[in-house]
Amino acid sequence: TTQEIIVNDTGTYWVKATSAEGCSNRDTINIGLYPQPQLDETNLVITNTGCGQNNGSITGLQVTGTPPLAYYWVNMLGDTIGFNIDLLNLSAGAYSLVVAYGTCSSTMATYLVNDDGNIQIDSVNFTNDHCSSNTATLTIYASATNPDILTYSIDGVNFLSSGGIFTNLPQGSYYLMIKDTNNCVGNYINNPVIIQNIGGPEITTENVSPENDFSADGSIFLEATLANGDVTYSIYNGNNPQTNNGLFENLSAGTYHCKVWDGFGCDTTFEVIVPRNTTTILEAISGFGSSCVNDTVVSSLNLKQFNGVFSFEAKIYYNINVVNCVGYIDLLPELEAGFNANITTPGEVLLTWQGTLPLTLPDTVMTKLVFGGLGEGVSLIYWAAGPGQSVFFDQHMDTINAVCHVGEIQVYTSPEIDMQPNEEACSGDTILVEPTVTDGNGTIIYEWSGPNEYQSQNKKLFLSSVNINQTGTYTLTVVDSMYCQKSRTININVIPSPEIAFSEYDTLWVEPGFLLEAGYGAEYYYWNTGEITETIVIDSMGNYMVEVTSYQNCKSTDAVQILWAGTPFYLPNAFTPNGDGLNDSFAPIPRYDYVNKYHLSIYNRWGQRIYETTDINRGWDGTYKGSPCMLGAYVYRIVYEEFGQQSIESKVMEGTVMLVR
Fold first, then answer.
1. Using an 8 Å Cβ cutoff, are 180 and 149 in contact?
2. 6-46: pLDDT as tens digits
3. Where are the domains of the chain?
């Protein structure tokens, strides 16, 4: 009864209006309700413009609502510029999506498309290469609205997403450019950038002073020029370096491996030889050797400039954790009289000699000390050179100048072998022995030896289908790259497999009831018939297989084909077809049930066939065409085949039978 109503649902509504004078009128109206559409921005993609071009876009929006829906895109001026939900080819600006539905419309959202703007290279930092080692670096700094979309190039061709950082560059000219995803390009105003190669240190001075009479008073002085920074010197192949100081003193004669380098790792390497100035001086030299743990090795004691020596007393030291001195060999005959060698303290050998006249010898080996290897490592073998140690005297008991040289013995660990001591197998089995070898040095060589001149260079011992002749002791010897070796043995016992009595036969022709024996002396028997006895009774033809197990659990398996021997029929020599129910027909009586094909023919004395059948259960009743035949002898002929034959062939039986009434 009001002039206005609120509508909450679709439908047809009517209204009646009545004036104060009682006049009235009515009308109807249909109301449709359309829910506002929903906007899904899950896949929204806004692509900004680049380089001031109209290449922006708004894509990926989805709108759901009551169809039909219509789309209107409006720019900042209120102009409609598109009717598809995806808006393409835009310039920078703000764009609103309006959706019309039914008689209604709604502005769903407004989106801003920016301009990424022009791009340019602001600055460049770089470092030079050093000694042509490709260590130069170059960094490009660029301006862009969105720097994450930039790629960088140093040759004008290949653009990389490197963040503007390039490393490991050689010397050369580089042309720098940047580019964004819209193919806007910016060039460096100061192209090209020149990267130079800075050389390493150059040796300008190399002075050498010799050593005098083994006094370790030699020296080396090196001097090098460098563009900038510190220079480092070493005469020990890079070890014990000295910065900005190329003087090395207190050197013995020898070859020194020199290295000079700068702070960038650029170096120069070369060799310097420090010579020795000598007057006549005796040299006592220890030799070098190598051995394995638990083996022996010798170290030669050499003498040079052994002139006018009347006596000497010397001490030789060694490392008792690595070697143990067990004696000496090959003493010079000239020193045998008056020579003594004693071990007074572990790790120390005392050598003394007293001559009767001064002795002069050519450069030679005085003797050889014999050592046993105790443990892996290096033992120095050196003459004691302290005051009063290793002294040589002339006939006036004046000390002869002498210098001692150190030797060494290297002891290597021996390989160790781990494997089982014994192996037992049955005849025909496969034996595999897999030893584990530990320790040792470098490549290991394997050598097996055994009975019957067995030899193998394989790591594993592999014996297939063994027999009792292979029983015995097998020895594995391993040798490493330092010729250290170790041996281990394994005893292999091959047990004979049990023998099967019929093993020499593939086929046996026997009578029913034949006793088939597997053999004797075994613990278990298992036939394919399911029987478990040593002997089984044969009641049918076929393939018989047995597995025999000995008391040592060795097994043998064999099979034999059993076929019946003799003829498969009993044939009577007479019959009486008189109807008394006894012996009224002539028919072969089968002995076995293995006849395959069968054909019986009866002939009279004139060779006329008077009867035939292929039914083994049907005999001749003594008639021909329903009439009784005469008394007398008749010839029979049977053609048959047997089951179980390896090759099937027809067999024939012929004979005579008497018809008696």
1. yes
2. 887 778 888 888 888 888 888 888 877 778 899 999 999 99
3. 120-198, 202-277, 283-412, 416-495, 507-564, 569-659
